[in-house]
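lol ok so funny story. i was supposed to be doing the assay writeup but got distracted and ended up predicting the structure for this chain instead. priorities right. anyway since i did it might as well share w the group, maybe its usefull for someone
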Amino acid sequence: MKKTKISICMCTKNEEKAIERVITEFKNVLKNYDLEFVITDSSKDKTPELARNLGAKVITQEPKGYGFALRESLLNATGDIIITTDCDGTYPVDAVPEMISLINQGYDIVSASRLKGKKKVEAMKGLNKLGNQLFAKTVSILYNCGCTDASTGMRAFRREVIQTIEWTENIGLSLELFFKPAALGYKIIEIPIDYKFRIGDVKLNPWKGGLAMMKSILKYKIKPIKKKSEK
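and the output, tada:
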């Protein structure tokens, strides 16, 4: 019987402290699946070398930003189910089997929420939590969907979703990956996860990043969202 192919998509920049641990953990947790790791990298350290040694497909890209890097990984993924995650140890790999199960039950997207049902998240600064709650509330209102964490970096997608929508945002890609499918009627479910302290340095400026994210949410209330085939 053919195994379901799972693509793990990440973008990396100087993550040599975490890359081996993250890939190895996925291999251990998802050992019954056909795994593919697709990583877009702009590192100056040993990250790409370490990833390739563990069998990952590494796409070298000059630093352009989070969204452009992750999009490159997504568009090069060939799995039946595509998983996005960050390469810093913050997202729990042991939540992925449940996410895959929900895709197999008929959902198009399973979004791992760091905030669902929680009053406090130890690994998330107060300012970041307030920003993420604001993004989620805005997405919920503007796109008529229930959302508690629109900016999470961990999701599972049916491959069709990635292939049929045009992804254009950079810093706001994590939000775009939620609100565009929601606007197009794809079936989405959120599950709560534990969020951990990151390995390595924080690379995103919260003020600059937050403004760019909010712009991403608002502009598509003016600009129509369509599938590629409808253009």
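The radius of gyration is 17 Å. The longest strand covers residues 5-12.
back to the writeup now i swear
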